[in-house]
Amino acid sequence: MLIIEEQATPYTLTLEVDTKQLNELFDKHWEVIKDDIELDGFRKGSIPKDVAEKKIGHDKLYSKLIPELYMDELHQSNIDVVYSSEPKIFGSFNREGFIRLITDCYLTPKVEIGSLNDIHVHTAPVYITDDEIKLEIKKIRQKYSILTETSDPIKYGNTIILDFIGFVDGVEIQGSKGIKYQLKVGSNNFIEGFEDQLIGLKQHDIKDIQVTFPDGYHKQNLAGKPAIFNVKIREVFKNTDISDDELLQKENCTLDELKNKIKHDLLSEKEDYQNKIASADALKQLVKTSKIGPIPKPCIYQELDQRLEQFVADSGKTLEELKTQFPTFETVFENNNKEIII
After folding, report:
1. Model pTM?
2. For the CA atoms of 254, 258, 261, 263, what is the dihedral angle to 10 degrees?
């Protein structure tokens, strides 16, 4: 997409409200808020309007009036605003006054859509193999599998019940103790290397497992440190698959019906996926031949702030922690994401 590089120009909008209009707005807004007003000496919703305005003040009582008034005016004027600053209020916001609202706003950037005739999307036929159907049947069978206690050594895929407690430098790690904890070995729910060291153990075995917390661990006092977990295996279970007849009974169908259903579902999934890829390809081609701009800088930075907030939340760290760990974090994040946004 061709981005017009010239600076988007903000427009100044001015809205004037005289005394008569202001009083009409106060009266209208009072009907909306009066039942929720609370004041000492009065029952909720029973306070007279003039008393509320005197005790609470027009600014607080009708605080929501300004943004609503501004948005209503924009809607009635059919102005396509993509971003606006907080309105500045001039005048006297009371029964004897008048107000003037002034705000800077940016209009929605103009978009010139490229030619649809130049878009070419190619899709390949989709089909389902017997191996794919067999794999899906295996997954369904595993869903109905039964856990059976075993005295065999632990292997990947087993479900176990264990006790554990972790130590760093001989000191117990807060929150690292588990009693009768159920774990499917190989699920990677623990620190890397923990579950691998369970392989070969049997019921009632006790072992010290040595691991190292990753450098980026969310608890900084543990990041990069070696730890020892005392582990006791209480029980070991293996998955026992049900028979073909039991499987078909649970699915309430014949083998051919089950295969046809799986084939239909897999075809739908593949076709949906292919359609999404084709749509994305078509959109990408269209974007290359289209023009947009100029894009207001406040819109870009507003989107950047939202992305940054989401990224920080997903990281499990604070922004200050990220900046301490990566001094150029904000600059790199802004440069990488600004290009994506534009």
Report:
1. 0.47
2. -130
